[in-house]
Batch of 4 targets.
Target 1
Amino acid sequence: MRHPTALIVDDEPDIRELLEITLKRMNIDTISAADLSRGKELLIQQNIDLCLTDMRLPDGDGLVLVKHAQACERNIPCVVITAHGNMDTAVKAMKSGAFDFLSKPVDLSALRQLVTNALQLSHPKQLSKERRTRHQLLGDSQLMRDIRSKIDKLARSQAPVYISGESGSGKELVARLIHQQSPKSDHPFVAVNCGAIPQELMESEFFGHKKGSFTGAVSDKEGLFQAADNGTLFLDEVADLPLSLQVKLLRAIQEKKIRPIGEQKEININVRVLSATHKDLEEMVHEGSFRQDLYYRLNVIELNLPPLRARTSDIPELTEFLLDKLSTTNQHDKPSISAGAVKALQNYQFPGNVRELENILERALALFDGHQVELDDLNLPMIRQVPEAAEYNPSTQSLEDYLEEIEKKALTAALEQNRWNKTAAAKQLGLTFRSFRYRLSKLGLD
């Protein structure tokens, strides 16, 4: 049976030797190079499964090797070795497609875990997981095909991902899919709603505590980072974190270490952090309520989920799926739904997105006559309907322009229906007045 082969590119002989010895003890064959040009040659000539490269090489930048490895037919995972504390370089590497990074001096236990994860990328079990994505994230619109393609790419990295999108658009589902397709899929996926934790308990919840470290600490407690070790930690509604905890979270992400309350030593952690919120984090950074440095660390890669109103062609399939799900849950036969009811759903704005669609259908099942769900059974708030938008066409219009057009229609309709009362229009759309005013200004409607 062939052992995996790792390419090590570093101009320091001691580093090369340390990595070679460590990997050989893991039954991994190694090939070494002292510069970029030789490294590129070996990537082409040899059957490489993993590349570990220093960022600063005598004849160039290690990122060149990262991009070269990605261009290979097998999309070889790359681990970048950076100078201690140089997080900006690490972020740049992951934005360029690196699987992960290691800081000097190299922590051997972290190296072993990272290498194990990276080598799992080519494991055959990944194929079945990719096929399942279509059945979990429904929709044949171009928007959803693009999202599924991005999930596949993001699963091949350890980079922090910031999932943005409106409430109910499926942010946690996407986070779970990224985890399930990643090398960490056999390890925990821990999801936490940051807005649901009392502020005085946050540090203990995230980092754990030692017995007796404060009043009420009657036993040792494992924190969320420890619970997610070797797996994925999903921070939902990350915008709700207080500034005091943002500082500690930033350190945990940068140093890959945590210190439980009352503990003298730091603990190494191997956790991929995914985060999400329906709020505008960039606006919060400008306001000073969210740290800019943490925003950049969480937002190494951003994945924006489109609102349901931007992919109306997916609504019939989603409706059938949800009717089947709800009927199974309630133990009765799945009803049909009239063409008029489906058309009305496609013309509805859906401020609550897929979650709202499910709620509307659940309510309809309690009202319909037992044969077919009709338009009247949906009980749609007519004031929230907006003019029908054309299906998104990427060849004629950018996604940003398309979504802006839809948002302008929704905001204008809400203002007209509320006689240009901004407070009432914001409430109708489920937005805070500040967010509503920001959107008006951004779109030139103020």
Target 2
Amino acid sequence: MTGKSGIPVAHDAKELHRLYTPGAPRAVVMTMGALHEGHAANIRAARELLGPGGQLVVTVYVNPLQFGPTEDFERYPRTLDADVALAAEAGADLVFAPDDAEMYPHGAPGVRVVAGELGERLEGASRPGHFDGVLTVVAKLLHLTRPDHAFFGEKDAQQLALVRRMVRDLDFPVEIVATPTVRDPDGLARSSRNRYLTAAERASALSLSRALAAGAAAAPRGPAAVRTAAREVLVAESGIHLDYMVLVGPLDFLDVPDDHTGEAVLAIAARVGTTRLIDNARLVLEADR
């Protein structure tokens, strides 16, 4: 079917594949809907890479496997018409919006992709089983959409690392392309969950990006200085409940030692009101001076 914005919306794989142009390069941007400027930036980056002759698919599916029993699956926003409009404006050619019956026709899958040790750290420790659900749906959507390139945002840094590892370890014939985190003018990282924040909560949430900026400014003085600078910002804000603030390696997400130099990820997760937010910054660390 064709959406109100003029681009086709497929609800099953057969319908999607009928819309494909044989031999055309293809890219996919996977989303859970509630699209915002961060998704649009991903779509525009994919369009630029493909050029006018490629086919760009945006998937919209709220995946139940990656939500825990106390998380916001039921209230997660479903805004398909608005999502199709944004996807079309940003340069998508097709939207694939399957339902649970299409994705999991036999019920919750008994066989899943297991994220391993990396998937049990940080976000995985806070949300047990989350990354198994993420990788399972990403693997299935890669099979269904058959892309040459798949675009993922750097805001979900641990997810990005796991998707790259899955593609490498299981020989998926796809290139994973990372796109920078998109922020509002005040510094808050774009997220579909930002709409849950009150004005006061949003003001508190800005401490996450301020902490990342403080940590980045301290990078020339080494890991200990980065951790101290970021934590000072966070502990001064009473409106957040910190889950973790860590400085980790970009591949294994293990804490880097105080003599570490080179690349690292400063990652933060915190609850603001009832909304859980994550953010991160990629740093290049120098020896402590």
Target 3
Amino acid sequence: MKLGIVGLPNVGKSTLFNAITQAGAESANYPFCTIEPNVGTVAVPDERLDKLKEMYDPEKVTPAVIEFVDIAGLVKGASKGEGLGNKFLSNIREVDAIVHVVRAFDDSNIVHVDGSIDPMRDIETINLELILSDLEILNRRIDKTKKSLKSGDKKFQVELDFFEMVKSKLEEGLTARAIGFDEEQLEMLSDVSLLTLKPVIYAANVAEDDYAKGDNEYIRKIKEFAATENSEVMVISAKIEEEIAELDKEEKEMFLSELGADESGLDKLIKASYKLLGLISYLTAGKPEVRAWTITKGTKAPQAAGKIHTDFERGFIRAEVVAYSDLMECGSMNAAKEKGLVRSEGKEYVVKDGDIILFRFNV
């Protein structure tokens, strides 16, 4: 999973990226300090792996990972190439979802690119650039569909009417996310690559004092807007993430407890990302390795096996499955088998979050 972190200059975007990836991306109090996108890989926290490690004492433990891409600050005119805008927009095109960092704190020492703090204006600025980019793409697709219409195939008229409708909505300032499409319409858009159709998490970056309570006037406005396009909102403090990035697990928990918070911003961000993209993890466990594998909710056993190796999917015979909770309750795989809790599942089995699976295959 690849998440692109976007935002106007000086909203705390690179500070947040540095903290959650500890990748050391340059951060400065002026626009355009990030030109090439920085990329950092983060392990997905999963206490189930810790418990399985105790049970199996494996040679290695491999968590699921998320790739974060710190995309340089967008400014007005990005869609026309302002501030290296075209490069930034192409970076956004490559990610699965967008983490849009919005400044929700006052600090006279950190200059805002527009001179004042207004989350709604900031969201609108970036969304407008993405909408303008989408309109350019859509216009090209409309021209192509008009040419195809000359063949007389009625399906192209249906496509043309649909693309014209989407265009009119975008021209009204709506993002594609806010329009609401059925499965057939999403299929028509599948190769159009609209930036504003990408799922978004608005990360409201607050001062340390507002983090634990998770509320202020700016956050309320962001939540109100996000609800109109079915986007997620999470409250984060880039400053706090920066402070806890170097702490060990125990120190981190103590620090958060003192703040009155129960989890870090990174943990919240990962959970929100999985929910937004409809992802779950299944597990494999044995002496060589304990590992988490990320799949889309609704994935069937052969396709889940294919995440490990294409041969597993091609030669799939069956999956031996036990629920994580059942294994923990029994204390061992043998005890789970004795109680009949290890099931043999076929090709139609839909994998569930926390399933521990051994795939049987033959190629």
Target 4
Amino acid sequence: MASDLSRSGSTGSISPTGLTGRLGTGSIVFMVIAAAAPLTVIGGNVPLAVGNGPGAGAPVGFALASLILLVFAVGFVTMTPHVPEAGAFYAYATRGLGDRVGVGTAGVALVAYTAVQVGVYGYLGWAVDSTVRSFGGPHIPWWASALAVAGLVAFLGYRHIDLSSKVLGVALVLEIGVMVAVDAAVFARGGAHGVNVESFTPHAVFSGPLGIAVLFALTGFIGFEATAVFRDEARVPERTIPRATYLAVVIIGVFYTVSCWALVLAAGVDDATTVARHTLDGDGNMLMDIARTYVGTTLRDLMQLLLLTSLFACVLSFHNVIARYTFTLAGKGLMPAAAGRVHERHRSPYVSSLAQTVTAVLLIAVCALGQLDPLVGVFGSLAGVATVGMVLLMLTTSVAVVTFFVRNPQLAPGKLWQTRIAPVLAVFGLLTGLWLVLSNFTLVTGGSTGISVFLAVVPFAAFVAGLVRGPGKP
């Protein structure tokens, strides 16, 4: 290791891995929600869910996705005390299904989170250029902004985790605050035709493919497992991780559902699909246009800027998650030993952080040299890979929970709901979600059928490669 791990850090007691932290429930919830990039989801995923899905019934898709993840969280949280190490889905799969499946799960996680991070860099580069030009500035190549932000992320990721949590907390409060202001204004003014619950009626819900709304809602939850990734840096992980998990799912789910409902009301139940499709065609911007109408130009302009902080918070959060995955795998002999080093002063996995920065920069460069469109070619395609990986990760984890408690019933006596019923329901819910994602995959990637099939196979290939690779030697 790069430091004497018997020495106390200035920011908290040192875990067996050498990482330190005093992250409470709130700090971890901030980082999970930041990874979800709520303002980005409302501005991007909601128009997709409304325009290509059931129109006014789209809020139900977000509610159903939230319910699936909440049921998943029951088994995930119940098993948490019996998984005494970081690594999240990797650690749970290893504990319940064995080392080989665990390594396969780790491969999926690294692919999924690297893909979504680089995808968001593409979205961020596009958004910076769009924002600068909207204020009369020059055109800025997307990759230039992405590389500049990657440098700032590298600086924060190299330092102690508490610094990143503070930065993410500020960015998150601002972006949620401005969206809550828009929601409140819509409900206060009664939307286009008065506040109603038409979105939650069978007529609206089944007026189009509800599965499309569920699909884009699930995409908005990517980063959910970060509650357990920060176990070694949590103040009291046995209490902090379960609380953070439930809070993250509930807050994200309610925020998405209510905000989607508010946008439908603002556009008008009968006109919501048309307004959303104008956004998809590039003839408007559902979120920004509604913000201008209901809260004014000044707040709309602020929202444009906060979209950039939302995207920045997202890439920073994913950077921290991937760095800690790599750090954990290095301790298991699955990555070069250097990746398991801890910085003497910052108590951070600094080598893993630097390696993640190099990986991101190289992939950004490849996308730029390939002249890929930052939204469709970079964000759309890589977010698609991440969505398949995310659902596959949760599905494997749910199976691991059931298997673990079947083999060890004495560890949770009398908890049939938590150890059997909820995880099995989660398996069926996630299988349905995976089918929805794969059957509508071209809508996620924005590419051809051939390209979409290739991208969809990548997470499964990573899982198989991990199974073949097998456990390392710590």
